[in-house]
Every structure is written in structure tokens, then in C-alpha cells.
């Protein structure tokens, strides 16, 4: 069986939902994972922020406005009177839950419950629409089987067993629809797989059922060689290895949730990226093929903090790095990039929640400089560090201001740290030169 995931834009309008129907209605049994309609999760986050700030009037206004938009979509989607009424009743129930949340004290748990409503809405509406159109669809409630453990990793054994029992008791259908993004935590409370998490839901289910393939259907024709939101003249890449896709997703290629390929890479389950609005386009196939070498693509991750740790005592002193790393370990903060010299170590983190505590510890034995608002630009491709074309990078560097560079950490990745205000310019320059749109 295949698992197909459709993102927010793909279920974001009546026209696109009709495209989804055409794509999935090919006579093959399949699991379909849906995101919330585009914009909904952002609205739910905004509602929850209003509650946190005790802005109750704004919160209720947003809830009512969102409810109105759903009523319009339902009227356009469901001409069948009985289904139309049934879906409106379900949707009103969800909006009542949201209204009741406004009277509750804010907590992270309340926020998790609020943001979970978007996927419940979209899956219910699309299942009813498919049934109206004569496509036999059955709903698999994700909260019955999708669960994370105390480290926030998917609890695969639990998911396998519970997915099977949910599937077995579901009404027999062609299309089994489920919610992306939402899950239970290790205590059985509603949680989620972080923003963009529906991609991750799809590959977790893919791994749990040993799917033949996972398809991620979105609003663009596959992974491009650079970020199309910032850079002109990007091109889709037809093939990526799991390693390349994992690096690009981790370093900011928004098309994939950072952990998308993790569940399927060891099982060698291919992941295909496709465009709902242009299903004929080949898209991108992610599998075990490593045959192409050189820079294939780049991505950028914002919100990075660089920390320079200088210590006289570092000279010839062993144990210095251990001392530094231990502090980051205690505060459960991952380090992304690291460079060293005789007198200093520079490293980067993207989670600065415990920055003050980390700095207080480091300052006990070193002088610290901190630069916020940095971006990591990551060049990805097999053997990229050995490839003859990579030398061009060093010619380009004369035109851009680099704070750190990491070369050779792995054969497949070169990372540059730049001030975020120089990110777009740097991405565009690298794009033009490395992908030979301009010759040096
Ligand atoms: P969905 O709602 O379907 O999950 P997303 O918005 O999460 O869609 O991801 C698709 C978007 O990712 C694209 O519209 C594009 O703007 C953005 N994106 C960023 N980097 C890339 C890239 N390298 N290749 C393709 N799309 C990218
Ligand atoms: N709806 C969630 C979000 O907007 C999950 C997803 O779209 O993948 O982050
Ligand atoms: Mg997404």
C-alpha cells in the first residue's frame, strides 16, 4: 500500500480538493494523510497566543471569522444536503471547543489542543466530500495510533500495533484518510509533531506499514535546488538520496519537515515529492541512489546563534572541548556547526532557550562573544567536498561576508554561516555561480 500526504494548499480550496480526489481515485487502496487547510494552523496559533495574552475579544473574533470561512467552504464543497448538514454540525462542535478554550487558563497543553483542531476539520470535510463523489473513504483517527515517547520520538511499536487495530476496525474503503501533524504524547495527552509535521506523519505510517512508497503532494513540483521563496531561477531536482534530502530538510528546505526521511531511510521506502496542481510534473524521487556527485542543492536555516568561546587555557589543553560540550549537553542544546582555532572555538545553536544559563557556565572559564540572527547556508550533494566544481565556492566567497565555514565535516555538506540580512544575497550569488547561470 502507498501513503500519500497532501499539504495545506492541496486541501486549501474546493478546486484543489477536487484535484486531490482525481489523484487518489485510481482504484488502489491507500492511506491518505491530510494537513489542515492552508492558513488554519497559523490562525489557531494566533488564537492561542491571544488567550496567553488574555486578549479574549481578539480571540473570539478570530474563532468566529475562521468558523465563517469554513461554512463557506462547506457550502461550496458539499451540495449533498444530508452530508452538508452533518459536516456543519461536526465543524460547529470543533468551533465550540475553541470557544470554550477561551475561558480556560492558558497552558502549553491548551495550545496543543487548539492547534490540533485544523487537521480534524480538514479530514472530516474531505472524507465526506469523497463519499459524496462516490469514492469510498474511511477515517482513521490519528489520535488512536500516533504517539510520541518521552524524547518526542515516534513510538513505532505502539504506532504499528495501534494503526493495525484502527485499520482493521475501520469500515472497508478504497481511501483511508487520517490526520497529519497530531499525536498523543507519552502521557496520552494531545500533542503534535511540530510545524509542518504532516510530512513526518506520512513517513511514520509508511514505516509502520512497510509502505511501497510515500508520496508528499504539495504546491511545487518537487525539491528545488535552492529556496524558491528567496531565489530566482531555481530548478526542481529529479533525484535525491535519503542523506541529501535529510540534510536539506534539516537545514531549512521548508518543503520537508526536518525529520521526514528518518523513519523510512533504513527501510529503503522511497519518498516521492509531487505537485497537486501539476501532477504530470515528475517531481523528486528520494531513494538510496548516490550516483550523482557535486553540489545538488542548497538551503538556509535562520534563527541561528553563534557563540565564540575564547580561552588562554585552551592552548594545548586537552579536555577543553569536553568541558564546553558537557555544558551544552546538560542544557540539552544541540550544536549545528563548529570551527576551532588555537585560541577559540566557534559554534552555533538554533535553540537558544537555555542560552543565558549556557553563557553563565562558559563565562566561568572563557571569554564569550555572541552573534544572534545568523543563518546557516548548507550546500548539499554527494562528495561535494571533493568535486572539481566546488572550487568555485572559494571564488564566490570574496563577494559575500562569511562568519564561519564548515568544510569536510562530511563529504556531503558544506555549511556557511552568514548574518541573516546577507542570506538572500548569498543564496542568489551561490545559485548563479554554482549552478552555472553566470560564469565566473
Ligand atoms: P505543504 O503545506 O504542502 O506542506 P509547505 O509550504 O510546507 O507545503 O512546503 C512547500 C513550500 O516549500 C513551497 O511552496 C516552497 O515555497 C517552499 N520551499 C522552500 N525550500 C524549497 C525547496 N528547496 N524546494 C521546493 N520548495 C521549497
Ligand atoms: N498543519 C500543520 C502546520 O501548519 C502541519 C502541516 O501542515 O504539516 O504546521
Ligand atoms: Mg509542509
Features:
alpha/beta, Carbamate kinase, VC0802-like, eight-stranded mixed sheet, 14 helices, binds adenosine-5'-diphosphate, binds aspartic acid, binds magnesium ion
Give a brief rundown of this model.
With about 450 residues, the protein is an alpha/beta fold.
What would you note in describing this structure?
This protein is an alpha/beta fold and 440 residues long. It has two domains: 2-219, Carbamate kinase, CATH 3.40.1160; 297-435, 2-Layer Sandwich (VC0802-like). It is built from 14 helices and 16 strands. The protein has helices at residues 14-24, 40-52, 56-77, 81-102, 108-115, 117-132, 156-169, 198-208, 242-250, 262-265, 320-330, 355-362, 391-396, 423-434, and strands spanning 2-6, 30-34, 137-140, 175-179, 182-184, 190-192, 213-218, 239-241, 271-275, 284-287, 297-310, 335-340, 344-349, 367-380, 404-410, 413-419. The protein has an eight-stranded mixed β-sheet, sandwiched between helices. The protein has a six-stranded antiparallel β-sheet with strand order 12-13-11-14-16-15. Strand 9 and strand 10 form a beta hairpin. The protein starts with a strand and ends in a 6-residue tail after the last helix. The mean pLDDT is 94. It binds adenosine-5'-diphosphate, aspartic acid and magnesium ion (MG).
The CATH architecture name of the largest domain reads 3-Layer(aba) Sandwich
Fold-level CATH name of the largest domain? Carbamate kinase
Q: How many structural domains are formed by the residues?
A: 2
Q: Overall mean pLDDT score? A: 94
CATH-defined superfamily of the largest domain = Acetylglutamate kinase-like
| Strand line-up in the sheet with most strands | 3-4-2-1-7-9-10-8
The H-and-E topology, N to C, reads as EHEHHHHHEHEEEHEEHHEEEHEEHEHEEH
Number of helices: 14
Structural class, from helix and strand content?
alpha/beta
What is the number of strand segments?
16
Over the alpha carbons, how many angstroms does the gyration radius reach? 24 Å
Name the CATH class of the largest domain. Answer: Alpha Beta
Question: Which regions have little confidence, pLDDT < 50, spanning 5+ residues?
Answer: none
Amino acid at each position: 500500500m502507498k501513503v500519500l500526504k497532501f499539504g495545506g494548499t492541496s486541501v486549501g480550496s474546493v478546486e484543489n480538493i477536487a484535484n486531490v480526489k482525481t489523484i487518489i481515485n485510481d482504484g488502489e487502496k491507500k492511506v491518505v494523510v491530510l494537513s489542515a487547510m492552508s492558513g488554519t494552523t497559523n490562525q489557531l496559533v494566533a488564537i492561542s497566543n491571544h488567550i496567553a495574552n488574555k486578549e479574549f475579544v481578539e480571540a473570539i473574533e478570530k474563532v468566529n471569522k475562521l468558523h465563517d470561512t469554513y461554512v463557506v467552504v462547506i457550502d461550496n464543497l458539499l451540495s449533498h444536503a444530508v452530508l452538508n448538514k452533518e459536516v456543519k454540525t461536526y465543524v460547529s462542535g470543533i468551533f465550540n471547543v475553541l470557544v470554550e478554550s477561551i475561558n480556560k487558563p492558558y497552558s502549553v497543553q491548551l495550545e496543543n489542543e487548539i492547534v490540533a483542531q485544523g487537521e480534524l476539520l480538514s479530514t472530516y470535510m474531505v472524507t465526506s466530500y469523497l463519499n459524496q463523489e462516490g469514492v469510498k473513504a474511511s477515517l482513521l483517527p490519528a489520535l488512536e495510533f500516533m504517539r510520541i515517547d518521552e524524547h518526542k520520538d515516534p513510538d513505532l511499536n505502539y504506532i504499528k500495533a495501534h494503526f493495525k487495530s484502527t485499520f482493521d476496525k475501520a469500515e472497508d474503503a478504497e481511501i483511508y484518510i487520517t490526520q497529519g501533524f497530531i499525536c498523543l504524547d507519552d502521557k496520552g495527552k494531545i500533542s503534535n509533531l511540530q510545524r509542518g509535521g504532516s510530512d513526518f506523519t506520512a513517513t511514520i505510517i509508511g514505516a509502520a506499514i512497510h509502505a511501497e512508497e510515500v508520496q508528499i503532494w504539495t504546491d511545487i513540483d518537487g525539491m528545488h535546488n535552492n529556496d524558491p521563496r528567496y531565489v530566482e531561477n531555481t530548478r526542481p531536482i529529479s533525484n535525491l538520496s535519503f542523506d541529501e534530502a535529510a540534510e536539506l530538510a534539516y537545514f531549512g528546505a521548508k518543503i520537508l519537515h526536518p525529520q521526514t526521511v528518518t523513519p523510512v531511510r533504513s527501510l529503503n521506502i522511497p519518498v516521492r515529492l509531487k505537485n497537486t496542481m501539476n501532477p504530470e510534473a515528475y517531481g523528486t524521487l528520494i531513494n538510496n541512489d548516490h550516483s550523482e556527485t557535486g553540489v545538488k542543492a542548497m538551503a538556509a536555516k535562520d534563527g541561528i546563534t553563534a557563540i565564540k568561546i575564547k580561552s588562554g587555557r585552551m592552548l594545548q589543553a586537552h579536555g577543553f572541548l569536553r568541558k564546553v560540550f558537557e555544558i551544552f549537553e546538560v542544557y540539552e542544546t544541540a550544536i549545528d556547526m563548529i570551527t576551532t582555532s588555537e585560541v577559540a572555538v566557534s559554534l552555533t545553536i538554533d535553540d537558544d532557550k537555555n542560552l543565558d544559563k549556557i553563557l553563565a557556565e562558559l563565562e566561568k572559564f572563557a571569554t564569550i562573544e555572541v552573534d544572534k540572527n545568523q543563518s546557516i547556508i548548507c550546500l548539499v550533494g554527494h562528495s561535494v567536498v571533493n568535486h572539481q566544481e566546488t572550487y568555485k565556492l572559494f571564488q564566490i566567497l570574496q563577494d559575500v561576508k562569511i562568519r564561519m565555514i564548515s568544510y569536510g565535516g562530511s563529504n556531503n555538506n558544506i555549511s556557511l554561516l552568514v548574518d541573516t540580512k546577507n542570506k538572500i544575497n548569498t543564496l542568489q550569488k551561490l545559485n548563479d555561480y554554482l549552478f552555472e547561470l553566470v560564469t565566473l
